[in-house]
Amino acid sequence: MNSISNIWIHPKTSAAGLLIAIATIAGVLSQQGITLGTAGSGTVITLVSGLATALLGLLARDPEPSSAGSTSKLGVWALIALLLPLPFMTGCSEAAVAQEIVNWTPALQSAVATVDSTAALLAPAEAPIFAAATVGFDAASNLLVAQAKAYLANPSASVLAQLQAAIVAIQQQVNASLLQAVKIANPVSQQHVLTAINAVGTVVVAILGLVQSVSSKTAVERMAAQSAIKLAQVRPYLNEGQAVAMVARHYDEPVEQARVQVAQLDVSMAQAGF
């Protein structure tokens, strides 16, 4: 009886627990290949998991002002949510992931084009620093797009290995460019530069997460070992709000759901050693 009465006394915590249960069960069903049918470009299971996670994010960010205990508990629920499988990376076949990687490539090409045009906004003394930091973006992005399309056409182990190498290479270039960008002293110019690089970085990390989801543990360990510049080193220069907005726009989803996905991906990358 106490358990039932607690539902009414602590409605938000109870709702959060229910959402955690729904998302967890959905994740287990996805891992077992149970989809319950299709929903748009995904499955019913991934849709339910995504909705549950998004609603949990809303609860965690809207605690009762007068209840410090509720705030703490909801913070724990949010932390648990970050450890759940990514809604857009679970229950998907290799073909579906390959298509999703290709779906990100127009955003990558657009972001790289913005990088190319950003140099014109900088002072003469600043432009060479920025150009040197981003010199390999065009070639690396073109190679990644080509490898993504090749993997979509032929999702074999050999083609996947080439895609893994391509995504790690451009991810390292982005990280290196962020470290170089902070050498631009003018704060306005530096902000222009960081915004442009962050756009590329957001797409690259999204693709890296997708590649990771179809890679073996050994392959992920190899990719992480090849990542000399870790995300932790460049985290002070990352723009979470910009990343969330891009993910929300790409998946046509609520910002809160995208916020949880970005946080989940960050945790996943850290756990994998990137």
Q: Distance between the terminal alpha carbons, to the nearest Å?
A: 48 Å
Provide the residue-averaged pLDDT: 79
The helical percent reads over 70%
Structural domain tally: 2
Beta content:
under 5%
The total of helices stands at 13
Large-scale geometry: globular
Sheet of most strands: 2 strands, antiparallel
Structure description:
Mean pLDDT is 79; it is low at 60-85 and 87-91. The chain is an all-alpha fold and 274 residues long. The protein is built from 13 helices and two strands; from the N terminus they run ααββααααααααααα. Helix 6 packs antiparallel against helix 8 (157-181). The protein has two domains: 2-89; 94-272. The protein has a two-stranded antiparallel sheet. The chain is globular, with a radius of gyration of 20 Å.
Describe this protein with a few key phrases.
about 270 residues, 13 helices, mainly alpha, 2 domains, about 75% helix
